[in-house]
């Protein structure tokens, strides 16, 4: 869900402990639409997965469309970005750098550790590791807001982690997943550039050149992103429907461990760095929530539909766990 970036809030470091983030430049309709989309998204993805599992034959040959579908999601992300996102990076570069390092160290390492701990088959192990090497999840900004966290920091970390993904994700995947399957890092760089960076930049250009018209579409973008990711999940599940029956429980355990430990260690990293409670909450979601749509696309293109299964399950679970964690943290604050 990439249009959740329509949530732009500015928080001062001094007022983090007691205030809600202030709203910046986005109409309340866009805000409400993004929050509703985050709430509905897990159920939408569950339905999408069930359709792929029950009617796999209906989606034969759709795998080639997955990168283009991901491009739509990333374009929506770019459209909802503003110069304020980049100014946020400049205001607190050390905090953003910390979030970036934590994200690309903790989640890839956890993916490798979980694969070894559960002794996953090569295809599933590579898929779990690839999820860990992906950039921040596109729903993390809204979940951070719902948790009363530092949304400005969340947006900054998610933006930078997405932009550097072509340089970071392929070598990390080669390093950690290469023992399971051959990894063509060069080809993966090209795919990420085409399906992530170029659509994001194109969306950003559209936002800058046609801001007035884009503003009217913001309430629609979260739903377009949600539906597109739902189609991606349907295609991925349909491609490995037979294997799911035997591997579903194992994959679910791997995903829950990966995501849960990521949330906990991300929060811990924020506390150790003395970012304060709101900053630590932002770190938790920026580390523990992944761009599983990108992971599914790359796994389908470079490994197999079975390797994309962890990403499909992660798409559902990290939104459920994120929403539950946000509700608990918000209630604890009040």
Automatic annotation (TrEMBL):
Main location: membrane
UniProt keyword annotations, A-Z: Membrane, Transmembrane, Transmembrane helix
Ranges that cross the membrane: 38-59, 65-82, 94-118, 124-144, 151-172, 192-209, 221-241, 247-270
Pfam annotation, one family: SBF
Lineage: superkingdom: Bacteria
Membrane topology qualifier: Multi-pass membrane protein
InterPro entries named in the record: BilAc:Na_symport/Acr3, Bilac:Na_transpt, Na+/solute_symporter_sf
Region (Disordered): 1-29
Name of this chain's protein: Bile acid:sodium symporter family protein
Organism: Streptomyces plumbiresistens
Native organism taxonomy: Bacteria, Bacillati, Actinomycetota, Actinomycetes, Kitasatosporales
């Amino acid at each position: 869900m990439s249009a959740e970036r329509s949530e732009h809030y500015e928080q001062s470091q001094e007022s983090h402990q007691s205030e809600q983030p202030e709203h910046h430049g986005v109409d309340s309709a866009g805000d409400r639409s993004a929050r509703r989309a985050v709430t509905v998204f897990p159920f939408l993805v569950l339905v999408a997965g069930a359709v792929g599992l029950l009617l796999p034959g209906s989606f034969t040959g759709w795998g080639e469309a997955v990168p283009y579908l991901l491009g739509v999601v990333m374009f929506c992300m770019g459209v909802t970005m503003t110069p304020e996102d980049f100014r946020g990076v400049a205001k607190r570069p050390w905090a953003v750098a910390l979030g970036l390092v934590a994200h690309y160290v903790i989640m890839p390492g956890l993916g490798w550790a979980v694969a070894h701990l559960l002794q996953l088959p090569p295809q599933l192990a590579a898929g779990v590791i690839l999820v860990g090497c992906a950039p921040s999840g596109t729903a993390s900004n809204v979940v951070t807001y719902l948790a009363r966290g530092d949304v400005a920091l969340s947006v900054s970390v998610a933006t930078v982690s997405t932009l550097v993904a072509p340089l970071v994700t392929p070598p990390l995947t080669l390093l950690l997943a290469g023992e399971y399957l051959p990894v063509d890092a060069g080809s993966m760089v090209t795919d990420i550039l085409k399906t992530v960076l170029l659509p994001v930049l194109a969306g950003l250009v559209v936002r800058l050149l046609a801001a007035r018209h884009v503003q009217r579409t913001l309430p629609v973008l979260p739903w377009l992103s949600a539906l597109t990711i739902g189609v991606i999940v349907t295609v991925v599940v349909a491609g490995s429907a037979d294997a799911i029956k035997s591997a579903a429980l194992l994959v679910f355990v791997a995903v829950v461990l990966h995501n849960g430990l990521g949330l906990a260690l991300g929060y811990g990293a924020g506390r150790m760095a003395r970012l304060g409670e709101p900053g630590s909450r932002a770190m938790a979601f920026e580390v523990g929530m992944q761009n599983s749509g990108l992971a599914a696309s790359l796994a389908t293109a470079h490994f197999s539909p079975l390797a994309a299964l962890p990403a499909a399950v992660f798409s559902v679970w990290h939104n459920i766990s994120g929403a539950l964690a946000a509700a608990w943290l918000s209630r604890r604050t009040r």
